[in-house]
Design a protein that fits this description.
This protein is an alpha+beta fold. The chain has one domain (78-343): Cysteine proteinases (Cathepsin B, Chain A, Alpha-Beta Complex), CATH 3.90.70. It contains nine helices and ten strands. It has helices at residues 78-87, 93-103, 131-143, 151-160, 172-183, 199-207, 301-308, 316-319, 331-335, and strands at 113-118, 186-190, 212-218, 224-225, 232-244, 252-254, 261-264, 284-289, 297-300, 340-344. Strands 1, 2, 3, 4, 5, 6, 7, 8, 9 and 10 form a ten-stranded mixed β-sheet that branches. 31% of the residues are buried. Residues 1-14, 18-23, 33-49, 61-77 and 79-89 have low confidence and may be disordered.
Length: 350
């Protein structure tokens, strides 16, 4: 097929010749009288050597336009395709988060000032039970944006290593091994939940801009809930909103549109903020993405912590659907409950 923008290809037309310069035409010899007459006289062209057909047209030149990444689930969902066409380009993280904060500004305590730490996390829509691998792909795109490890590669390695059968991931430990092998990053498995004594370690990790993979139970609106692991899902967080009593005087700047909200000043050394004390309600929110939405979601830290701590049972509906799933010895409780995965670039310190 020729591109609409490609020049048309035409065969050269020979120049006209002068009839006088052509050789005289010799008529064919008369047919013998005893032959039967043909219904149609032979055309002059039938007495000449057949002309071979012209060669096929060359293929169109290769385009240099950028090919967008594959959106999993798009082929099977016309509704999703139409929604994405109407939605336009995916907003940058800062704009998407500010939209989210404006929508929920009444949730935030007025006695606190707020500092937003948010890395630019990409989005990807999952196809089938690939929520964990999609979350890992997002984290990998943040850790090494130039590596371009495709989701298909993560799925392939996970299947070859026996971590998954359908794309599901029911083991944080296996997820860490996969991250190290396929993405070449540091992976730290967190045991004992997101609360004390791990809470400050997790928050400092997010303030630094590194991703955190969290298994949790997913509610109808994708937020954390408590279903004993029956709705086990994966999310990735690369940002946190901290409510503090006072913002350090150096290294932070107030948002011009949202008074009381501060951002780290780019290119400026800054002291780390004092972390809110555990048990201070409504003072810490995670910014998370998961494989069923393009947009960030804002989750209360304690809500995520509680959901992560009660992942104990395999979903009865999955157990009865006739498909094969890879579940570690000890079940969902041994593989997911109270665990999370902290990822860092290979050359970063702890």
């Amino acid at each position: 097929m020729i591109s609409p923008c490609s020049p048309s290809l035409e065969l050269p037309i020979p120049p006209p010749q002068n009839p006088a310069s052509q050789a005289p035409i010799i008529p064919p010899p008369p047919l013998p009288p005893n032959l039967p007459k043909l219904a149609f006289p032979p055309s002059p062209s039938s007495l000449q050597t057949p002309i071979p057909p012209p060669p096929p047209l060359p293929p169109p030149p290769a385009t240099t336009r950028f090919s967008p990444p594959h959106v999993f689930g798009l082929e099977k969902s016309q509704l999703l395709k139409e929604a994405l066409e109407r939605a336009g380009p995916v907003p940058r993280s800062r704009e998407d988060v500010k939209r989210l904060l404006k929508l929920h500004k009444n949730r935030f305590r007025s006695d606190l000032q707020w500092i937003l730490f948010c890395a630019d996390l990409p989005s990807l829509i999952q196809e089938g039970p690939q929520c964990g691998l999609v979350a890992l792909w997002m984290a990998g795109a943040l850790l090494a944006p130039l590596s371009g490890t495709p989701l298909e590669r993560l799925v392939q390695v996970a299947m070859e290593r026996g971590y998954t059968a359908q794309g599901e991931m029911f083991s944080v430990t296996d997820m860490g091994r996969l991250a190290q092998e396929a993405l070449g990053c540091q992976a730290e498995v967190l045991y004992g939940g997101l609360g004390a004594p791990n809470r400050d370690h997790v928050l400092q990790h997010l303030v630094t801009g590194h991703p955190l993979l969290i298994p949790y139970d997913e509610d109808f609106n994708h937020e954390p809930c408590q279903r004993k692991g029956h709705k086990a899902h994966w999310a990735v967080s690369a940002g946190v909103l901290l409510g503090v009593q006072g913002v350090p005087s150096l290294g932070y700047e107030e948002d011009p549109e949202l008074p009381g909200l501060f951002h780290p000043a780019p290119g400026t050394p800054r002291p780390p903020p004092s972390l809110p004390e555990e048990g201070s309600p409504g003072a810490v929110y995670l910014l998370a993405k998961q494989g069923k939405s393009w947009h960030y979601q804002l989750w209360d830290y304690e809500q995520v912590r509680d959901s992560n701590l009660q992942l104990t049972d395999f979903s009865p509906s999955r157990a009865a659907d006739g498909r094969e799933y890879v579940v570690p010895v000890g079940g969902v409780q041994a593989g997911l409950c109270g665990q999370a995965l902290l990822l860092r670039p290979q050359d970063s310190g702890r």
